[in-house]
Amino acid sequence: MTNNNSFSSITDKIEYASGLENKHYISKQQFKSEKNTIMFQNWCGVSFAKDIPEIGDVKPINFLGLPLLIIRESDDVINVFENTCRHRGMQLVDSSQHAKKNIRCPYHNWCYALDGALIATPHIGGVGKHTHNNVNPKSLGLNKIRSYIWHDIIFINISETANDFNEHYAQLIDRWRDFEKPIKFGGENASFSITLQANWKLAVENYCESYHLPNIHPDLNKTSKLEDHYDIVDSDLYSGQGSYKYHQLSDDKDNVFPDFSGLNDKWRLRSEYIAIYPNVLMGVHRDHIFSIILEPLSVTETKENIAFYYAEELEPTEQIDELKKKNLSFWKKIFKEDIHVVEGMQKGRYGKKFDGGKFSPAMDRATHNFHAWIAKQLI
Ligand code: FES
Ligand SMILES: [Fe+2]
User: Fold this and answer.
1) DSSP readout, 189-252?
2) Which of 83, 182, 323, 339 could pair with 67 in a Cys bridge, judged by C-beta atoms 3.0 to 4.6 Å apart?
3) 205: CA distance to ligand 2 center in Å?
4) Which of 237, 238, 292, 288 is nearest to 267 (CA)?
């Protein structure tokens, strides 16, 4: 069991701090404990709203062992429930589908509306009697999970104890105020996923810093060099890096994606990449946003679900489709370049003498910020 002393060495000033010890990356027991103290207590990204575009679309997910059901109730309302029938606990939905107006349990046909209300209990009072005095349907709606949607990401807070999302991340929302507007999922060439043989925290740590840029992303380093980057460490709840040299993607006729409207001029050449603790990574640019939801599958396996978004006014022309393909393959290459090092850090974590490592006080500030946050959650 880690004592508070070992955490104080992590939350110490970066000059003196050490990193999280190996068990945070390789121990099943620690994974379980972090599930309860980190993932279930905070706001976690679990899915994208774009996956359920039509009213009545439902999507079952398993988040760290919890069976959840995401339902689009209306254009503006998406709810997350337990995917568990209130009668005998049957899993309600086993694959993404369009439920039209209600969701029927496959076991005894109890039926729920899109807002989770229990609306039919066939034969509950005996054959042909669909009510019973001792069963109040009003108290038997689907169990609701606290949720909030930001930039198309569905966040949930299992414990219901986190501050309101807007309050919790007020500083980040303010930092990216210019992007607080409708964004449009890029469609066919705008999503993919990668499964990493690594603990989810290593994906966060690698995303936070630009120190590895020259070695791991030599092509990217030609246009946006290491020295063009700055750290983002102004909050306890997120960290990352930005670049002063964002180069817009263009095709051979110099077509580019349209910008998001009303951006401050500073975004002309700037881009920012932030890890929103615990499990969402986002990148913003004048003409597109991408989001990565980290899905921890086990202590040593993580799925990255990645989606790209553009300005609302994007017309679906042939040129735009080509640009989208080009943008997707540009980023896919970069994300794939990271796999080797993230998985390599996982392998290194079995070194018995490794003590969590030594941060560079100049280059690892964003990573240290994340370790300090984890340590504070666990104290
Ligand atoms: S378990 Fe769902 S209706 Fe019986
Ligand atoms: Fe990288």
Assistant:
1) GSEEEEEESS-HHHHHHHHH--TTHHHH-TTHHHHS-GGGEEEE-S-SSEEEEEES-------T
2) 83
3) 10
4) 288
Contact 272, 242 (CB under 8 A): yes
- Domains parsed from the chain with CATH numbers: 4-43+165-378 (3.90.380.10), 51-157 (2.102.10.10)
Distance 131 CA to ligand 1 centre (A): 15
Q: CB of 251 within 8 A of CB of 228?
A: no
Pocket test for ligand 1, best of 86, 91, 108, 132 (most atoms within 8 A of CB): 108
- Is the Cβ–Cβ distance between 165 and 42 less than 8 Å? no
**164 alpha carbon to ligand 2 midpoint, in Å?**
31
Q: For residue 339, how far is its CA from the centre of ligand 2 (angstroms)?
A: 9
Residue 159 in tokens: 């414990």
Nearest CA to ligand 1 atom 4: 108
Place of tokens 């309050």: 167
Residue whose CA is at the smallest distance from ligand 1 atom 1: 88
The reply to whether the predicted model has a pTM over 0.90 is yes
Chain segment 242-272, per-residue pLDDT in tens:
999 999 999 989 999 999 999 999 999 999 9
